[in-house]
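Input chain follows. Return structure tokens only.
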Amino acid sequence: MDAQSRGRADGVDPADQWVLNPETGNYELRLNPSGTQSDSGPSRSTTDTASSRRTGRSGRREVPEQRNRRAGNSTEEPADGRRKRKPKATRKKKVLLWTGGVMGLVLIAGSGGVYWLYQHFNGNLNTVDVGDAGSKSTIPDGAFNVLVIGTDKRVGKGNEGYGDAGSEGHADTNILIHVSADRTNATAMSIPRDMVTDIPACPTKQKDGTTKTVRAEKNVRFNTSLGQEGRDPGCTMRTVKQLTGLNVDHFMMADFNAVKELSTAVGGVKVCLTKPVNDPKSHLKLPAGQSVVKGEQALAFVRTRHSFGNESDLDRIKQQQQFLGSMIRQMKSDDTLSSPTKMYGLADAATKALTVDSGIGSIKKLTDLAQVLGKIDAKNITFTTLPVIDNPAEKKVHVTVVPDPTKADALFAMLRADTSLTEVKKKEADAKSAAAADEAARLNGPRAKASDVRVTVFNGGAAPGSAGTVVTWLQNQENVLKSSNGSNAPAKVPATALAYAPNQADQARKLADLLGLSASALQPGTKDAVGKEAMVLTLGPDFKQAGTPIAAPAKAPEGIQKVEADKSVCAK
């Protein structure tokens, strides 16, 4: 790609605009046509000598790598008494320079891409105000969740043959990224577009600036949570929250162009096939074994439904995850990190293809988020798919699916409890085990009779009416007659919690047994209860319904599909 195609009329490639700021000792990107320094550095007019040192023989600015090659490794002091040159940075140090001072690493695109962000590209971003559907904090305390959406909207050159003609853009590809509270691991859960679910009512900003509340719908495909009847990404976020019990803090949305442009900018993405493919519908034609795809071929690979498995959307999800894992590995490679041209191209392609919520609607905020994600090792990023079964309402031909009533709830519970699907470092696992042992001790001991349990139930983030439902269930089904409805809690809580006094421990254990509470949900106080003082149970967003255990399973459900991002898997 030449300088003209990068949008520079002066013929200077922006990737060559890295100059040393003598005040900070760091390389900085200078994109103004004159090539002048910022206020923190000397101006071009200060000295022609300084200017000549920053340019190559052709008069164009050189990137740091070019200057270092020309300079060599010499550290001897020149005869004219000038300061001696600093030792050449090691390869590792240069990689750290790029990652720490230049770009944010690593944002995952729903259609299969990784976004590297430069501050220069702030103007490329599109933002959507989703109101209270998301978080105002860029990086919330504790675990957080980012919903990545790939739409099927036909925008951009060459995309006329994809998606539905005239579509406003459905939620075609959906990945919920759960980042652990300790930032050591992440789970990327794909949500099938053809899964039948309920979509809640959602307020959306319309094109004319007004706010419209789109009506709720029951038993419809998940992909209609976006685009239909003016629904925006906030509606998809609310749908995911209602489905999983997880707060969705932010969203990132990309279209077909993201796959084509990012795969091209990185020089291609490696994919693997167990058999040759020649699909006339997607125009994907690849041999068996390993291939490198980019542009139209990359998009064909992530969109084909008739080349692998049973030709379903579920099998397509697997190949999208393979593509995404390979993209992450390529983006983290030295070949990419050490190339200013690739880095620029990726940043430009990413920000042009990206739409985000206003909570992360600037390069500064996105870079902060990216730096957190970028520290997670690829081996600790697990791809999985929301467990589903054929829709029982379809008697003859199955074209949609519904959440698996057992496995899906277990997976959601693991994510709500911040339980990783990936093994983390041994010392981190040991630390978690020690904490778990301390928590488990709270459940050891005698239990009170159900009729002696005294508790007030509050709703701190569960579905409306949950507190009353639980009290009715406790009284009628479990003989907890001393339970009462406290209505709404003073504030929302991230997860269900039971607060109790030391002399109520036996009651707390009994209630934990009845409700399926984990040890971490038990919050003992320091002062004994007096008289008829009741324990306080606050229901959080992890509460689904009375009788359904809230505690997360210790391991993933049997048969759940998962693969780590550092693994290369061949499409079958």
